[in-house]
Amino acid sequence: MNREQLITLISEKLKLIRTERDLTQDQMSDLLGLSKKTLVQIEKGRIQTGWTTTIAVCALCRDSTILQHELGGDPLEVVDLIANNGTLQPKEKTMGGYIWWKNLSEYNGYCLQQNVISQHFRILNTDNYRLLSTFDESIAKQVWENLQE
Question: Which residue in 81, 99, 88 sits closest to 130, CA to CA?
Answer without folding.
Answer: 88
